[in-house]
Write a structure and sequence with these properties.
alpha+beta, elongated, about 650 residues
Length: about 650
C-alpha cells in the first residue's frame, strides 16, 4: 500500500524519511562526543611520543653523567695488522712498546688408538682433571657414542670429545681440553679400565705419595714485616726467638725469614705445624720471584688440628720461593714447630696413549721482558689499564701502540644531542600556532540539537599543533633552552663552563637568527675531538660535577637536565601520565554518554514511529469521513 502523507509542510514527504531526519537531528551530540574522542585519542598518541622522547633523552643523559661514561678511551693495536687487539682505560699511558709473540697458548689434544667401532664398554666410572678442576663421569656402559655423550654431559666443562671413523670397522676417540695453558692439560684416573678399553689411556697406576720438603728457617736472618700493623716487631724485648723446639713469635709481631731458593710446583702448599695453643686464624705469607722481581703474598689462613695450610701453588706455580712470612696478631705467643713445602703428585693415574698437541702457555716479550699466561685472550694484568688479545706469533718484534680513541666519547655526545634535538623539534611542532589562524571552540549548548564543535576549530588545528598553548610543553621547551645555554661551575683547572666551550652550540657566529632561536644544538666535530683529547675530565665535569666534594653530583648540564625531565616521566604522578589519564577518562565518559544516548535514540525512534502511525491512521479516518460526507451531500442536492 502507498504510504500516507501529512498535510502542510509534511505534504509529499514519506513518514519514514521524516523519522530518519528527526532521529539524525537527535544524533548530533553523539557526533560531537565521537569527534571529541578522536581528538583525545590523537592527543594521547602525542603525549605517548612526548614520553618516548623525554625517556630517550633521559637515558642518553644518564649515559653522559655515568661514572663510567667513556668520554675519551684509549685503544690498543700493533704495527703489524692482526697481531694484537685490545682496549685501554684512561689510566693507561699512551705510547709505543716493543712486542714479540714467541708462542701462542694452546689446548691439550689427545687421540686414542684404533678400536672396533662396535665395541661394548663396561659400566663404571673415571675422573677427568684439568687445572684445579675435576669431574667424575659415571658411565652406564655402552658403545663409543654413549661414552662420548657421557663425557659431554658430565665433564663438558673440562673436555670436548669426538669420534672419528677410520673405516667401516674401526674408529678412534679424540679429546680436547676446553681451556688453554699448561696447567689445564688433561689427566685421567681410570680405575675400571673404561678409557683403556676405548684406546685413550694406558694402564691405571696406583696413586703416588706427596713429596714433602722441610724448609730450613734461620731466625737470625729474620727481618721485621709491616711495622705499621705489627707494631712490636722492632722492640728488643719482643723479637723473634728460635730454639731446637721451633720459632717463638710474641704477640703483635711479624717477620720475613729467607730460605734457600725452592721451586713451587703446581698445587703445592705450605704446611705450618704449631705446638701448644694457637689462634684459629693466622696471617702468613711468602716471597717469590716473578718476572724479574720479588713479589709478596700475605693473607689469613685457617688452622686444621695443629697445622695451617697456605696454598702457595695458587699464586706462584712454577716460581721460586725465597722467603716465608710469619706473624702473630694474637694476645699470646705462638710456637711454630716447622714449615713444610708439600707437592702433591699429579692426580692422573693413567697416562694418555697419544698426544696430538701439548698444552702450552702464551709466551710474549714486552720491552724485552718475557711473560707467560695461560690464555691468549683478555690479558689484563701485564700493562696497567690495558686488556688485550693475542692472535698470532710474530716473526720479528712489532710495535704495540696505545693511543687515544675519541670515537666512543664523541658518539655518546652525538647521541645525546640527537635526542635533545628530537625532543625539541617535536615539542615545538605540537605547540606551534598559525599566526593568522584563530583557534576557537565555540559551540552551542549541549541541549541544542545543533550542538557541535565549530568548523573553525578543526580548520585551524590543521595549521597549528594539537597541543598549542599547552603550558607543560611550553615550559619544557623553555627549560631545555635555558639548561643548554647556562653557565656551570668548573671544578677543575682549565675546566669548561658552557656547552660552546666543547663545540656544542645553537649555531655558529653569523648564523640565521631564526634558526638560533629554534634552540636546536649543533656540534663542531673538530673542536669536540680536540677537547676530548686534551681534557676529557673537563668534558665529563661539564655534564656532571661535584663542586662540594660530598660524593654527590649536583651541577652540570646533564644533572640539571635530569631534574627537568624527572616530573615528566614519573610513573605514578608524572605530567605525561596525568595528562593521558585525564584524556582516557574523558574518552571513557564520552563512550558512556554515547551508549546511553544510543539507547535513548532507539526509544525515541520507536515513539516517533508510533506517533506518526497514529497520525496516519487519523488522516485515513478523516479522509473516509470526508468522502462519505461528500457523497451524501451530493445525493441530497438532487444527484442520482
Amino acid at each position: 500500500m502507498p504510504a500516507y502523507t501529512m498535510p502542510g509542510l509534511m505534504t509529499g514527504q514519506n513518514t519514514n524519511d521524516i523519522v530518519k531526519k528527526l532521529v539524525e537531528l537527535e544524533r548530533r551530540p553523539i557526533k560531537r562526543w565521537e569527534t571529541e574522542n578522536e581528538y583525545a585519542k590523537m592527543q594521547i598518541q602525542i603525549w605517548g611520543e612526548v614520553k618516548n622522547l623525554t625517556t630517550n633523552l633521559q637515558t642518553k643523559t644518564r649515559a653522559l653523567v655515568s661514572f663510567t661514561a667513556p668520554f675519551a678511551t684509549k685503544s690498543v693495536s700493533s704495527s703489524v695488522e692482526g697481531v694484537i687487539t685490545g682496549e685501554a682505560s684512561r689510566a693507561a699511558k699512551s705510547g709505543n712498546r716493543a712486542l714479540e709473540i714467541i708462542e701462542m697458548a694452546s689446548k691439550h689434544q689427545l687421540s686414542g688408538v684404533e678400536i672396533d667401532t662396535d665395541i661394548r664398554l663396561p659400566e663404571g666410572s673415571f675422573t677427568v682433571y684439568s687445572g684445579k678442576s675435576k669431574e667424575t663421569v659415571t658411565f652406564p656402559g655402552g658403545g663409543l657414542s654413549e661414552l662420548s655423550n657421557s663425557i659431554k654431559n658430565m665433564a663438558g666443562s673440562l673436555v670436548e670429545a669426538s669420534i672419528i671413523k677410520i673405516d667401516k670397522d674401526s674408529s678412534i676417540i679424540t679429546l680436547t681440553s676446553v681451556k688453554t695453558g699448561k696447567k689445564n692439560q688433561l689427566q685421567f684416573s681410570d680405575p675400571n679400565g673404561i678409557l683403556k678399553l676405548a684406546g685413550l689411556v694406558g694402564e691405571n697406576k696406583a696413586q703416588e705419595e706427596d713429596t714433602k720438603q722441610l724448609l730450613s728457617l734461620d731466625g737470625t736472618k729474620a727481618k721485621v714485616w709491616d711495622t705499621a700493623k705489627f707494631k712490636k716487631s722492632e722492640l728488643e724485648t719482643d723479637k723473634l726467638s728460635q730454639t731446637e723446639e721451633g720459632i717463638f713469635l710474641k704477640p703483635d709481631t711479624a717477620y720475613s725469614i729467607p730460605i734457600a731458593v725452592t721451586e713451587i710446583k703446581e698445587r703445592a702448599f705450605l704446611e705450618v705445624e704449631v705446638l701448644g695453643e694457637a689462634p684459629a686464624v693466622m696471617e702468613m705469607g711468602m716471597s717469590f720471584e716473578k718476572e724479574g722481581s720479588v713479589r709478596n703474598k700475605f693473607l689469613p689462613i685457617t688452622k686444621t688440628e695443629t697445622k695451617y695450610i697456605f696454598q702457595a701453588g695458587d699464586f706462584a706455580s712454577d716460581k721460586n720461593l725465597t722467603a716465608i712470612i710469619l706473624s702473630n696478631a694474637a694476645t699470646t705467643p705462638i710456637q711454630i714447630k716447622s714449615v713444610t713445602l708439600v707437592t702433591p703428585q699429579a692426580p692422573g693415574t693413567a697416562e694418555p696413549v697419544k698426544v696430538l698437541q701439548e698444552a702450552k702457555d702464551l709466551k710474549i716479550k714486552i720491552d724485552g721482558v718475557e711473560i707467560t699466561r695461560e690464555t691468549n685472550e683478555g690479558i689484563a694484568d701485564v700493562l696497567e689499564g690495558i686488556s688485550f688479545n693475542v692472535h698470532k706469533v710474530t716473526e720479528e718484534p712489532v710495535t704495540l701502540k696505545i693511543h687515544v680513541d675519541h670515537a666512543k666519547g664523541s658518539a655518546l655526545i652525538k647521541e645525546w644531542v640527537d635526542a635533545y634535538n628530537d625532543l625539541m623539534k617535536f615539542s615545538k611542532e605540537i605547540t606551534s600556532v598559525e599566526k593568522n589562524g584563530k583557534i576557537s571552540d565555540k559551540k552551542e549548548s549541549d541541549d541544542s540539537k545543533a550542538a557541535d564543535i565549530s568548523r573553525d576549530f578543526w580548520d585551524n588545528k590543521s595549521k597549528s599543533g594539537l597541543l598549542a598553548g599547552e603550558n607543560s610543553i611550553l615550559r619544557l621547551i623553555a627549560s631545555l633552552k635555558t639548561t643548554a645555554n647556562s653557565y656551570y661551575p668548573a671544578t677543575k683547572e682549565n675546566g669548561f663552563r658552557v656547552l660552546t666551550d666543547i663545540g656544542i652550540s645553537t649555531g655558529a657566529v653569523g648564523s640565521n637568527w631564526e634558526k638560533i632561536q629554534d634552540g636546536l644544538l649543533q656540534i663542531d666535530q673538530e673542536k669536540l675531538i680536540a677537547v676530548l683529547s686534551e681534557n676529557p675530565d673537563g668534558v665529563r665535569d661539564l655534564f656532571a660535577s661535584d663542586p662540594n666534594n660530598d660524593a654527590k653530583m649536583e651541577e652540570g648540564v646533564g644533572i640539571k637536565l635530569l631534574e627537568i625531565l624527572k616530573p615528566y616521566n614519573q610513573y605514578a604522578s608524572g605530567i605525561v601520565t596525568s595528562k593521558v589519564k585525564l584524556l582516557e577518562e574523558s574518552v571513557a565518559g564520552n563512550n558512556k554518554k554515547i551508549k546511553e544516548h544510543e539507547s535513548h535514540l532507539i526509544s525515541f525512534e520507536a515513539k516517533l514511529k508510533q506517533r506518526f502511525l497514529y497520525m496516519e491512521q487519523g488522516v485515513g479516518k478523516n479522509k473516509s469521513v470526508g468522502n462519505y460526507l461528500q457523497n451524501n451531500m451530493f445525493r441530497g442536492n438532487g444527484g442520482e
